[in-house]
Amino acid sequence: MRSLFAPELLREAMADARRADGEPVVVEESILVDGDDGVAGDDGGVFFTPMVVFGALLVFTIFISYRDVRRKRALRLFDSLLFLALGLTGCLVFFLVFFSQHEATSPNWHILWVNPLCFIGAVACWINSAKKWIYCYHFINFAIIFILLASWWAIPQKANVAVLPLVLSVLLRSATNVYVGKKCVKGNK
C-alpha cells in the first residue's frame, strides 16, 4: 500500500478498481493541470524558480560577506534571518527523518546542513558573551558543509542542483563568521 503514495501510481491502480457490487470506483477522471502547463520557467517570464531565487541569494550573500570581511564584522541581521529560516526548515527535515513513516523521507542527507542546530547561528550572534560559541558553531558548520559538498557525488541521495546556491550561501556565511570571529576570539584571550 505504501507504493500508492505517488499520485501517478494511485491513478493507475484506481483506474481498474471495482467496488464490492462490481461498479467502478472511478466514475470520471478530469485533469486539473496538464503536464506542461503551469510549470515555472516554461514561458521564460517566471523568475521565481528555485535556481533563480537561490542564485540571487548567493549573489547577495557574496556581496554581504565581502562587505563583512572588509568591515571585520558580520551582519547579524542577515545571519539571523538566514539561519532562522534554516532552523525552521531543519525542524521539518528532522521530523521527516526521525518521526515520519514515509520511506521517501529517510534517510535525508540534507539534515547535515539544514537542521534545528541552525537556530544557534540565528540567536547566538546577538549575545555578546557567546562569541566563542558562535565561532565554534560556524567552524563546525563550515567543516560539515565543506565535507558534504566535497563528497556530494558519493552520497546515495541525489539533490536538485538548485539547492547548490543555497548550500554555498550557508557555507559562505559560516566561512565569513569564522574569519571575522577569529579576530574577536583571539582578542578575548
Give structural notes.
The chain is built from six helices and no strands. The chain has 189 residues and is mainly alpha-helical. The longest helix has 24 residues, at 164-187. The N and C termini lie far apart (61 Å).
Termini separation comes to 61 Å
Any low-confidence stretches, pLDDT <50, length ≥5?
37-42
β-sheet strand percentage: under 5%
| Mean pLDDT value | 84
Task: Describe this protein with a few key phrases.
189 residues; mainly alpha; 6 helices; 0% strand; elongated
Please sum up the structure shown.
55% of the residues lie in helices and 0% in strands. The chain has 189 residues and is an all-alpha fold.
Per-chain topology:
Layout: H1 7-15, H2 50-71, H3 76-98, H4 118-123, H5 131-150, H6 164-187
